[in-house]
Design goal:
This protein has 208 residues and is an alpha/beta fold. Helix content is 48%, strand content 13%. Strand 7, helix 10 and strand 8 form a beta-alpha-beta unit.
Length: 208
């Protein structure tokens, strides 16, 4: 893997609010969870700050000894609740295809539960070469280093930290909860308004 990766352009992508707009699906799942458990959850607030692990968000609404069960139930109901309402963000498929058109590999690295992340990619026809779930912020460096990613694209300051921890170029997109100033302050090397600008940037980067 190391030998192949060193000669192949590998680009990592975050999932939620980078490749996909999962806010409608995630909101629907939290609404259902709140109805089942009787626990109040401000679903609009939840979807305004996507990125960190599910357990971190659940801790805002459930007692510590109920978080694991709440996460398990959320993940179990997710396929029937959250996949259909979720859409691809503008340029998402084209961004992945741009990497592959250059002979490269597109690797999705996300904090999301991997089986549910896989359902999103399949439903939306985003043909990534590799998917790794369950990793957040600096933890994403584990997968990025394993696959030799030279670039990591994400919408959150946690994605910037993950890229830097893997010695990869951080490309920030302002389609998620973090604006340009936040991404720049966190140390993003490149900031794009969305993924529609990515293929042209990548061709320039790869040709440098």
């Amino acid at each position: 893997m190391g030998s192949m990766s060193s000669h192949t352009l590998t680009v990592g992508f975050d999932l939620d609010m980078t490749l996909i707009d999962s806010r409608p699906g995630i909101k629907a799942a939290y609404v259902r969870l709140a109805a089942e458990t009787g626990v109040y959850i401000d679903t609009d607030l939840v979807v305004s700050r996507l990125g960190p692990p599910l357990e971190d968000e659940m801790a805002n609404w459930f007692p510590a000894d109920e978080i694991v069960a709440a996460c398990d139930r959320y993940r179990a109901m997710y396929p029937d609740t959250a996949i259909a309402p979720t859409t691809a963000l503008p340029g998402a498929r084209e961004a992945v295809e741009a990497v592959q058109a250059l002979g490269g590999r597109a690797v999705v690295v996300t904090a999301k539960y991997e089986p549910n992340a896989k359902l999103h990619l399949a439903h939306l026809g985003i043909a990534a070469d590799v998917l790794i779930g369950g990793l957040w912020a600096e933890g994403k460096a584990e997968a990025l280093l394993e696959h030799g990613a030279r670039v990591y694209v994400g919408d959150h300051t946690g994605d910037v930290r993950g890229a830097h921890a893997a010695n990869a170029l951080s490309v920030g997109v302002t389609t998620g909860p973090c604006d340009e100033e936040e991404l720049r302050t966190a140390g993003a090397d490149v900031i794009l308004p969305d993924l529609t600008a990515f293929p042209a940037w990548l061709r320039t980067f790869a040709g440098a």
